[in-house]
Amino acid sequence: MALQNIGASNRDDAFYRYKMPRMMTKIEGRGNGIKTNVVNMVEIAKALGRPAAYTTKYFGCELGAQSKFDEKTGTSLVNGSHDTSKLAGLLENFIKKYVQCYGCGNPETEILITKTQMLQLKCAACGFISDVDMRDKLTAFILKHPPEQKKSGKDKKAMRRAEKERIKEGEAADEEMKKLKKKAAGTSKEKVLRKKEHSSPPPSQDENEQAESEEDDDDDDDVQWQTDTSREAAEKRMKEQLSAATADMVMLTTIEEEKKKPEVVEKKKLQENGDGNAHEKLVSEIKELLGNGLTPSQLKTALASNSASHKEKMEALLSALFGDGGKGFAKEVVKKKKYLMALMVMMQEEAGSPQQMVLLKGIESFCGKANPEAAKEVALVIKGLYDEDMLDEEVIFGWYGAGNKSSPVMKKVAPFIEWLKNAESESEEG
């Protein structure tokens, strides 16, 4: 059976983990008794984690037609003749309203009914609770026919298996892409060398003579004419010009001034490093580099020459890329992940440092200092980087285990950690 990604926004993602069967319909009957049978509604509903009666009823509400789902036979019928594409479009609306998390877009949610008879979606990944619009006609049907509070273990195991397959496919595709890039890079270098060989004419005799004369001039430039300014030489010259007593007084003053110089330099360094000036200066430098359109690889080279620590570089890069965080911070992190990856590669090349831990601590520090909106989305940020294979489960657990659980950042991350632990244990059982 053909599969497709859950959610229209994920249609083009070849490695998206959540799949559902492509809808299949069949027109039955004639005249006033004509009906549309959604043949694989049971399989679609299982993939979405929702009762098939909900999706069937939603079609009827939106089309203004009678609809019925038979629990015994698993038959989903909607009165009238309806195109598959039309019903598929309505299913996408159902997914957006009743399946996907309003925060992270993850379809791994469950429907909750509050004490005040309101519907909510609770995300098992990021912990976000979405309020469902109660003006929709389907909400009344859901209140009368409440869902089971938890998904079955089989459904979750199936999702974890699909995730493993996606990761394997992604790794294979990445390896193939690397091979193609290496081959293309080798071919392009050969072409450039051939062009240079054919396009550059041999230098003439006059040009050779001019080059030799320039080299001679350069040799002369290397010679530096200077006066010996050492203390011994100065003392000798002074004693020659002044009396012994006067020369001693002058040299004593010079020695005292030389002793004071290191203290002045040290004070200047402390002033420059104090009050976060070094951090602000590094942020400003990175912003300037990004403003000049540097690629991630060029940025990596530029940061490699900086004397700041890896932690300082990571915090400065986060500040330069995302400012004060703000709403939509998590989406921006995924969009600009290549710059974070470039810095992580640089750290690994330099000393094999724990670059994932540096990234997590940098995010923790950034979200703690930035505005509250950034802290709200910290779980979405870490989940996004985890989905992009930039963070491993073991590193995330180690970082969270060593952190201060009472901090606002760790409190926001806690639901995602719990989800990750449950998913890992189910994967081991499977």
Automatic annotation (TrEMBL):
InterPro entries in UniProt: ARM-type_fold (IPR016024), IF2/IF5 (IPR045196), Transl_init_fac_IF2/IF5_dom (IPR002735), Transl_init_fac_IF2/IF5_N (IPR016189), Transl_init_fac_IF2/IF5_Zn-bd (IPR016190), W2_domain (IPR003307)
Pfam families recorded: eIF-5_eIF-2B, W2
Keywords: GTP-binding, Initiation factor, Nucleotide-binding, Protein biosynthesis
Region named Disordered: 144-224
Assigned GO CC terms: cytosol
Occurrences of domain W2 (ranges): 272-430
GO function terms (MF aspect): eukaryotic initiation factor eIF2 binding; GDP-dissociation inhibitor activity; GTP binding; translation initiation factor activity
Ranges of compositional bias, category Basic and acidic residues: 145-178
Bias (Acidic residues): 206-223
GO BP: formation of cytoplasmic translation initiation complex
Function: Catalyzes the hydrolysis of GTP bound to the 40S ribosomal initiation complex (40S.mRNA.Met-tRNA[F].eIF-2.GTP) with the subsequent joining of a 60S ribosomal subunit resulting in the release of eIF-2 and the guanine nucleotide. The subsequent joining of a 60S ribosomal subunit results in the formation of a functional 80S initiation complex (80S.mRNA.Met-tRNA[F]).
Family (UniProt): Belongs to the eIF-2-beta/eIF-5 family.
Name of the molecule in the record: W2 domain-containing protein
